[in-house]
């Protein structure tokens, strides 16, 4: 499945062209591909906003201080429609972020890969009833 | 209890049973929408100064004033001192930037702030230019969207009532069917509606706490809970009442009331007020390498 | 719902665009509002794989072969299954940042998981006229479109004028609204006597369409000035009086607000869950001739919500881009 899909994707990528690119900024305008970061910390605050959600992360450093990072995520509305709510990532949740640092060197990064400390990904799987078009259970 | 208190008490007694409005009959039954409920479809607008200040206030030169010198001597024994002066940032607007006098829309004219919150409100008012979300064209929230000086339009659809506001293109969907709660806090809140006789009652929760009630710095937290009542009182008027609760900010619930007036122009149309474009120079002009105002590099 | 049946419906419609009434495969009857207008209310979204323009490598073919369709279906199902399982990274052919610094799958796929695969059709382009399935740009507009693609994500980003109108949280334009994706592309249609109102999730764009027979009111707007009428069970909307915002950057030149733009749309519900949306765009400042696209749009279940999209209020990205631009300038 893996390698085959890679080959197939490259070959018919054009046929898979979706609806026109939504006018969201590109990663490269904000973040630096030459500055990968890996952050392990706890959720201090989650802004479930569009077009990008923002995860405020407390990252403990070896010297005992705590850095506050802002991590850019994707748009949350598709998650909401699958039944995810703000309770799904409560303050204090431990997460691992792999991404790239802001070009201006500040403590911001894009959350290219967000995982929980057990290695699983948050927000995965069917919520609601899992049927197509089904809304949240609540 | 003095005369004012007696009159207020009488109005409260009357108000709990009927919607008394300055001689207006309360027996009005609105024409029906297709589903048999009162027909609120149309373009409406508030006509008051509530967006400046929910409470009664005299006219003054500008929203943003600057501190002015005082003589400290008994009046008349020294030279004249200035009255209130517009802050430099707004001075060029002259009378266009002035604040008109207005009667309050708050029942009892007092907003029951907790002591810390009363101080916060004062501070908000003193920092209006930097803090009022209206200036940045942020979504106005509820109930402020209702009484901003722009019209709004009510569309009664099937199971959903849509209210479209001109300011910032704000909209609300009022769910008349059973829905869950909001997955996360928002600027315009999460609205659930029902009919009580002739009144549309809308229960609004799920606010993010970032809006203000007016330009005077009246504010709330994300625990805000608003219950609105829209009652037709004539073919061209609604009575709008909103009960406001926020246990983080106020000591008790309080209420605002005002008429809403139907826009009667035969070709009336809700128009755009897409103000994000209007505030970009203010918000971002000096953030980039180049300032679009001059085309020169920022420093 | 099999894709073939829908594509057959769309194919018939494409080949006979003047048909006022489409064949209804399921003896389905158009519901009516209580006051008798055709009822289009609900949440609608474009969820298909058809590109706007016909890809060059297809040699002008209007339809894909059955094998090509089957392959796309297989890939879409696989992508959906991978999203469901939380698979990311190289397992699903993610491009590395080196391969695609602009569109290198910047976020986990769970953000894009709508719970189902996209629907596959055999049409090779949404554009049906001109027959070659390509946007009939003027020379200047073609230059603008090429420039827009080349600068996406690359910049420079030296002021708030450099990002496009969407990145500035203004709008992506009226012509893209009914079928924009992949996120924020949901539309709610609400009907009341004399009006059809469309609220679009992204940028909370909103179009109020009077169907009361009055002429356009004449005040120009970003999303134009619409008047609608019913032709049988089809809603026909004509929109003119667009503000001219062509001085701004637009992600899609073909959707920009131009004061020469005239947009004619036909909304026809062909069954309970499908709408045939036809749009004809005329803009002599951008195109050498009018062009038409036929787009299948799908109705989602009634408990689907449009959520608030407070783009400007949370537009950290814009200030971050400008800050990045300054940092880059200082490094030089």
Structure description:
The complex is a heterotrimer of chains A (138), B (299) and C (332). With 138 residues, chain A is mainly β. Chain A has one domain: Beta Barrel (OB fold (Dihydrolipoamide Acetyltransferase, E2P)). In chain A, a hairpin with a 5-residue loop joins strand 4 and strand 5. Chain A is globular and about 35 Å long. The relative contact order of chain A is 0.18. The N terminus and C terminus of chain A are likely disordered. The N and C termini of chain B lie far apart (63 Å). About 5% of the residues of chain B have low confidence. By secondary structure, chain B is an alpha+beta fold. Helix content of chain B is 15%, strand content 24%. In chain B, the strands form three sheets. Chain B has a nine-stranded mixed beta barrel. Chain C has a domain of 223 residues: Lipocalin (Beta Barrel). In chain C, strands 1, 2, 3, 4, 5, 6, 7, 8, 9 and 10 form a ten-stranded antiparallel beta sheet that branches. The radius of gyration of chain C is 21 Å and the shape is globular. Chains in contact: A-B, A-C, B-C. At the A-C interface, helix 1, helix 2, strand 1, helix 3 and strand 5 of A face helix 2 and helix 4 of C.
Question: How many strand elements of chain C?
Answer: 10
Radius of gyration of chain B: 22 Å
Which chains make the largest contact? A-C, 72 and 88 residues
As a percent range, the share of helical residues of chain B equals: 10-25%
Low-confidence stretches of chain B are 10-25
CATH architecture of the domain at 31-54 and 102-279 in chain B: Beta Barrel
Form type of chain B: globular
Helix content of chain C: 10-25%
SS content category of chain C: alpha+beta
Mean pLDDT of chain C: 87
Largest sheet of chain B: 9 strands, mixed, barrel
Neighbour order of strands in the largest sheet of chain B: 1-4-5-6-7-8-9-10-11
- What is the helix/strand order of chain B? HEEEHHHEEEEEEEEHEE
Which fold name fills CATH's third level, the topology of the domain at 31-48 and 127-331 in chain C? Lipocalin
């Amino acid at each position: 499945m893996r390698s085959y899909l890679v080959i197939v994707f490259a070959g018919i990528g054009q046929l898979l062209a979706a609806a026109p690119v939504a006018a969201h900024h590109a990663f490269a305008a904000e973040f630096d591909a030459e500055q990968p970061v890996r952050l392990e910390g706890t959720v201090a605050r989650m802004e479930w906003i569009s077009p990008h959600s923002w995860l405020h992360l407390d990252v403990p450093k070896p010297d005992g201080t705590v850095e506050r990072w802002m991590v850019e995520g994707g748009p949350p509305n598709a998650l909401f429609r699958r039944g995810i709510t703000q309770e799904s990532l409560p303050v204090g949740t431990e997460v691992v972020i792999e991404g790239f640092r802001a070009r201006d060197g500040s403590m911001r990064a894009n959350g290219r890969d967000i995982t929980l400390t057990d290695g699983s990904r948050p927000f995965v799987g069917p919520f609601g009833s899992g049927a197509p078009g089904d809304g949240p259970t609540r | 209890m003095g005369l004012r208190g007696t009159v207020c008490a009488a109005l409260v007694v009357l108000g709990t049973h009927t919607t008394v409005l300055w001689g207006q009959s309360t027996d009005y039954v609105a024409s029906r929408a297709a589903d048999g409920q009162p027909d609120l479809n149309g373009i409406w607008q508030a006509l008051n100064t509530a967006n400046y200040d929910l409470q009664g206030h005299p006219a003054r030169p500008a929203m943003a004033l600057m501190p002015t010198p005082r003589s400290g001597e008994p009046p008349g024994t020294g030279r004249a001192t200035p009255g209130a002066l517009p802050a430099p940032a707004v001075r060029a607007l002259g009378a266009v930037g002035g604040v008109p006098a207005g009667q309050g829309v708050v029942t009892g004219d007092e907003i029951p702030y907790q002591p810390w919150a009363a101080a916060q409100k004062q501070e908000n008012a003193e920092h209006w230019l930097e803090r009022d979300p209206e200036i940045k064209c942020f979504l106005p929230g509820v109930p402020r969207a209702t009484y901003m000086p722009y019209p709004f339009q009510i569309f009664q659809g099937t199971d959903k009532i849509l209210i479209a506001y001109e300011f910032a293109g704000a909209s609300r969907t009022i769910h008349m069917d059973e829905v869950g709660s909001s997955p996360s806090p928002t600027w315009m809140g999460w609205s659930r509606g029902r009919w009580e006789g002739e009144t549309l009652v809308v229960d609004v929760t799920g606010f993010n706490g970032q809006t203000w009630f007016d330009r005077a710095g009246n504010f709330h937290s994300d625990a805000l809970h608003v219950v609105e009542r829209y009652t037709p009182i004539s073919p061209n008027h609604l009575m709008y009442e909103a009960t406001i609760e926020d246990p983080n900010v106020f000591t008790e619930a309080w209420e605002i009331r005002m008429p809403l007036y139907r826009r009667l122009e035969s070709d009336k149309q809700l128009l755009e007020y897409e103000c994000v474009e209007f505030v970009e120079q203010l918000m971002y002009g000096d953030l980039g390498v180049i300032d679009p105002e001059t085309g020169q590099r920022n420093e | 719902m099999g894709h073939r049946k829908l594509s057959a419906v769309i194919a018939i419609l494409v080949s006979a665009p003047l048909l006022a009434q489409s064949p209804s495969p399921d003896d389905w009857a158009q519901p009516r509002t209580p006051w008798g207008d055709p009822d289009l209310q609900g949440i609608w979204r474009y969820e298909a794989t058809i590109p706007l323009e016909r890809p060059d490598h297809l040699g002008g073919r209007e339809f894909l072969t059955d094998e090509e369709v089957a392959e796309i279906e297989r890939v879409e199902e696989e992508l959906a299954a991978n999203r469901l399982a939380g698979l990311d990274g190289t397992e699903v052919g993610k491009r590395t940042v080196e391969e695609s610094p602009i569109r290198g799958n910047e976020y986990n796929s769970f953000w894009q998981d709508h719970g189902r695969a996209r629907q596959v059709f055999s049409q090779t382009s949404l554009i049906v006229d001109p027959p070659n399935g390509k946007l009939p740009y003027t020379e200047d507009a073609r230059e603008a479109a090429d420039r827009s693609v080349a600068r996406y994500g690359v910049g420079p980003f030296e002021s708030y004028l450099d990002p496009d109108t969407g990145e500035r949280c203004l709008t992506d334009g009226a012509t893209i609204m009914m079928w924009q994706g992949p996120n924020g592309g949901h539309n709610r249609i609400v009907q009341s006597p004399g009006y059809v109102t469309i609220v679009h999730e992204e940028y909370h764009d909103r179009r109020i369409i009077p169907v009361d027979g009055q002429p356009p009111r004449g005040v120009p707007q970003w999303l134009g000035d619409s008047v609608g009428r019913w032709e049988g069970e089809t809603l026909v909307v004509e929109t003119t009086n667009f503000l001219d915002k062509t001085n701004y950057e637009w992600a899609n030149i073909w959707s920009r607000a131009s004061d020469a733009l005239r947009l004619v749309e036909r909304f026809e519900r062909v069954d309970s869950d499908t709408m045939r949306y036809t749009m004809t765009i005329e803009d002599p400042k951008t195109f050498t001739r009018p062009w038409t696209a036929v787009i299948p749009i799908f109705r989602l279940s009634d408990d689907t919500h449009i959520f608030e999209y407070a783009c400007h209020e949370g537009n950290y990205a814009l200030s971050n881009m400008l800050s990045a631009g300054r940092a880059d300038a200082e490094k030089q």
